[in-house]
Amino acid sequence: MKLANLATAAVFAAFLAAPIGSLALFGPHEMAEKVVTKKELTSAGLFVADDEFRNDVARRLVSNSPVGMDAISAKNSLDFKVRVHQHAPGDFRRARVAVLQARFPGRPMHDGS
Amino acid sequence: MVFSDQAFLYLYLPVTLLLGVILNGTRLFPPFILLSSLIFFYWSSGLYVLLLLVSIALNYTGALAVERLHRKSVVAAVIGLNVLILCYYKYTAFLLGSVGFFGSEPLKAFASSIILPIGISFFTFQGISYVIDVWRGEVKAERSLVLFAAYKAFFPQLIAGPIVRYKDVEKDFHHPQLDTDIFAAGAARFMVGLCKKVLIADSVAGVADASFALSRADQTFASAWLGAIAYSIQIYFDFSGYSDMAIGLAMMFGIRFRENFNHPYAAATITEFWRRWHMSLSTWFRDYLYIPLGGNRAGPVRTYVNLMIVFLATGVWHGAAWTFVLWGIYHGAFLIAERLLLGGKAVFSQALRLVYFFPVVIVGWVLFRANDMSAFAAHVRAMVSPLADGAWTLPGTVTLALSPQATTAMLFASLLILMQGQFRPAGVVAAGVSGEIGRYARLAFVAAAVTVCTIYVVPQSFSPFLYFRF
To answer: Do residue A15 and residue A42 come from a single domain?
Structure first.
C-alpha cells in the first residue's frame, strides 16, 4: 500500500464525512435551511397581508428545492393576489397600480381609468 | 439526486462507498451494487424504479432467448419492445402534438400525463446493445440475474451515461479489481468532474439562462453571442464533468468504464468533433445503426443517406422536439459537406477551428438550447446583427448574471477550451498519474479540490445535470 494513496483516500473520505461528522458533533445550526413541508405550502398563512411567511417559504424553496427561481414568481403572484383581495372589487385597479409601483419604484403609473 | 447534491455526496455516497469497498470481491458484491443502485434510482425517480426492473427483466430473458433460439425474429422482438417503451415515455406527447392531438382534448390530457423517467434513453440503449452483442456472439448471455441487474442498474452510469456495454465491463463485474491506487485514481477523477460541474458549469449557467430568457426585442448581438458561448461552455463542462464523476465512482468500486470525451473542442471539423464528443453514444450509433445500414460500403450516395439517418436518430435521441430533430440534421449536413469537400480526411488547423468549427458548433448549441424554432431564429438573427441599434450593449439581466465569478469561470473555461489538444489541466493529469511523485501530486490535487468544492457545494442550490432530461 502506498502512503500517498492512503492519504488521498483519507482526504476524500474526510470530504464525504465532514458535514455528517459536523452534524453529529455540533448538531444542526439554527441558520440551517429547513425543508419546506407540504403543510406549509398549503397553509392559509401564505395568504395573509404580512408577507414574512411568504418570503420565508420562497427563500427556502429557492435554495433547497428543484423549484428554484420559480418560487419567486409564485411569491410575486401571491403578493399580487393577496393585495387585490384586500381591497374592495372597485379598488382593483388602484391595488394593481400599488403593486406595480412597489415593483418599479420611480416609474409613473396610471390606473387605466 | 445528482452527483453534486449534498444528499448524494454526504449521505448516500459515504455509506455506499464504505460498504462497496468492504464487500468488493465477495459474493455479496453484486447484490449490494444492485440494491444500492435501486435505492439511488428510487430516490431520483420514485416508482419508475419498476420500469427499470421491467427493462432488466426484458433484456435478461431476451438475451437468454436470443442465445438459445438464435432467431432474427427474437432479436427484433426484444429490440422492438425496448424501443416501444422508450417511444411511449419519450415521444408520445411529441408525436401526438405534431398532429395537433387529432383535435382531441382527452388525447392531449393523456399525452401530458406521461412523465419522462430519468435516464430512460441511457438504460434502453444499454439493453439494446447487450441483446445485439449476444446475437452477434460478441458476449455470452449472463446467467446470473443479480449480476446482470447490477450491471444494468449500476448507479454511476444509470441516469446520464456513459452508455456502458456489457462486453466492456463483464470481466470487472465478475471480478472487480480494486486496490489503493485504483481507488485514489477514482477519487481524483471524481473530483475533476465535481470541479468541472460546480466551479465552471454552474458558474456560467446563469449567463446562458439570462441570455436565453431574453425576449426577442431585448436580445442584442452581444447578449446573444455571450449566451451562446456560455451555453457551449456549460454543456461541455457539465456533461464531461458528469462522465468524469461516473468513471471515477465506478473505479472506486473496481469497475472500469470507457472514456466518454476526448477534448471535443480541440477538433477543427464536425466529423472530428463527433469522434470526441459523447463517444459512448456516437460509437453506439456507429456499431448498431450506421454499420448495419451499410455504412460507407455501398457508394457515396448511400453513405450520405446513412449518415443523415444516424444524425437524425442522434437528434431525436436527445429529445422529443423539432429543435433536436433539426440539430441532428444540422450536424449531419455538415458531416456530409465535410466528406464531399475534404474526402473524410482528418484536418487539424487552428484557422479552420476558429473560423469554421467554433461558429458551427456554437450555433448548433443555440438550436439545442432554444425552446422552439422561432426562439432559435430570433437568437441567430441577433447573432448576425452586429450593426443593429444597441447591438453591443448587454441587457440588465445578463449584466447581473455576469458576476465576477461567472466572468472568471467563462474566461478560464475559454482558455482551457482554446488550449485543448495542446495542454491538459493539472487536475486531469493528476487523476491518471503513476509513480511516486505522481501519487503525491494526485494527493495535492484532491486536497485542493475537496477544499474548494466544499465551499461551493455546501451553500449551493439545486442544480441538475443537463443530460438528465435525455
So the answer is: no
**Matching residue, cell 447487450:** B130
A73 touches chain B (CB under 8 A): no
pLDDT digit string, tens, across residues B336-355 = 999 999 887 778 888 899 99
Q: At what angle do helices A3-26 and B180-195 cross, to 10 degrees?
A: 60
- Helix residue ranges, H only, B286-403: 300-318, 322-342, 350-352, 358-369, 373-383, 396-401
Q: Which of B263, B318, B331, B379 is catalytic?
A: B318
Are residues A45 and A9 part of one domain? no
Q: What is the pLDDT of residues A80-96, one digit of tens each?
A: 777 666 655 555 556 55
For B119, half-sphere exposure in the C-beta direction (CA atoms, 13 angstrom radius) is 31
Q: Are A57 and A75 part of one and the same domain?
A: yes
A97 and A45 in a common domain: yes
A15 interaction partners in chain B (CB closer than 8 Å) = 450, 453-454
- Say yes or no: A62 and A100 in one domain: yes
Residue A64 at interface with chain B, using a CB cutoff of 8 Å: yes
> What sign has the CA pseudo-torsion B216, B221, B222, B225?
positive
Q: What is the dihedral of CA B38, B235, B423, B223, to 10 degrees?
A: -160
Residues A49 and A99 in one domain: yes
Domain housing A113: 33-113
Alpha-carbon gap, residue B170 to B46, rounded angstroms: 28
Q: Using an 8 Å CB-CB cutoff, list chain B residues near A11.
A: 187, 443, 446-447, 450
Instruction: Confirm whether B318 is a catalytic residue.
Output: yes
Give A68's contacts in chain B (Cβ within 8 Å). 461-462
Please report which residue ranges of B175-256 form alpha helices under DSSP H.
180-195, 202-212, 221-252
Total count of domains within chain A: 2
C-alpha cell at B459: 451553500
Dist. CA B24–CA B169, nearest whole Å: 15
Residue ranges in chain B whose pLDDT is less than 70: 1, 4, 423, 426-432, 457-470
Q: How far apart are CA A89 and CA B168, in angstroms?
A: 70
User: d(Cα B280, Cα B260) in Å, to the nearest integer?
Assistant: 6
- pLDDT-derived band of residue A15, with 50, 70 and 90 as boundaries? confident
Q: What is the DSSP letter of A102?
A: H
C-alpha B248: how far from chain center:
15
Q: Enumerate residues 6+ apart whose C-beta is below 8 A from B220.
A: B382, B388, B390, B391, B392, B393, B394, B395
pLDDT tens digits for B168-212?
999 999 988 888 889 999 999 999 999 998 899 988 998 999 999
Nearest to A8 among B10, B446, B462 (CB): B446
